[in-house]
Design brief:
Layout (H helix, E strand, L loop, with lengths): L5 E4 L2 H4 L8 E6 L14 H11 L22 H28 E11 L4 H11 L2 E9 L10 H8 L20 E8 L6 H8 L17 E2 L19 H11 L7 E4 L6 H8 L3 E6 L2 H12 L9
Parallel strand pairs: 1-8, 2-3, 2-7, 4-6, 7-8
Antiparallel strand pairs: 3-5, 4-5
Helix pairs in contact: 3-4, 7-8
Amino acid sequence: MIIKNQILTGDCRSLLRDFPPESISGCITDPPYNYEFIGHKWNAAEVERRLERIKDSKTIVKNIPYGSGLAGGVRNSRWYERVRENILDYENWCFEWATEVFRVCKPGAVVAAFNSTRTMAHIQVALERAGFYARDCIAYRRSSGIPRGLNLQAKLRKKGLANADAEEWEGWHSCFRNEWEAIVLVQKPLLNNYVETVMQYGIGLFHTAKEQGSFQSNIIENIPRERNGHYNVHCTVKPLALMEKLVDLLVPASEEHIVLDPFAGSGTTLLAARNLGRSYVGIEIVPQYVRIVKKRLSATVTKKAKK
């Protein structure tokens, strides 16, 4: 039996094996993205080391721990081989934890997994291999986005090449301005149909009603940014309002329903679940982050659950 409303320290691939089957009503999580690093390198010391390296650099976005080894370099055949090897390693790592998440989820439970627009397919493939089936992809539109690729005209000018100012290369860039993140939605197979699943397990549908009778789309936007507490050193904290929105969309309001986050980070998913009257269980491999989670949970007041 799961002890509700707790945060566990360790690797979710191991700890989830002790969870009883069909005990989780929904999973909302933000695992490490493939361009960051795979699970065994995801720790506070490594994050701090990589952030320190770019603190005084010209890098525009300084809160993301760059340095996977796959961003730069000559695009020769070995470079593409390494990228492909990394993709397969990442998918297999995701498959390992997704298999345990599948086992502990109730029929009809939905998994919402954040990932980048470049790597969302990899995590969806892993989740489907584990037994889930794809339902949708929610676009979380952030308040801003900054291009981080190559400006060809500026690069040519820097190299002093004759055509650096050629009009034909004005506005040509190696990437788009990235202003949204993907939330991959998959679901554990139903018990025959939606009605039987709801009657048996109390889950399986989306809470799509919005104010003034409108219908929720698969784009979430206009979520305000928040100030993190000075003690919250996690580098990729999602807004609490966003996680509350996902909890409300995917898991009915009842303390009988447990929301799982196997990559709890600083605990925003757990805080959102508690605020809205759901139970929660989180797993986090970094002890420093677990201490942050406990501090955040003890410092807040539960909101009235949404109906």
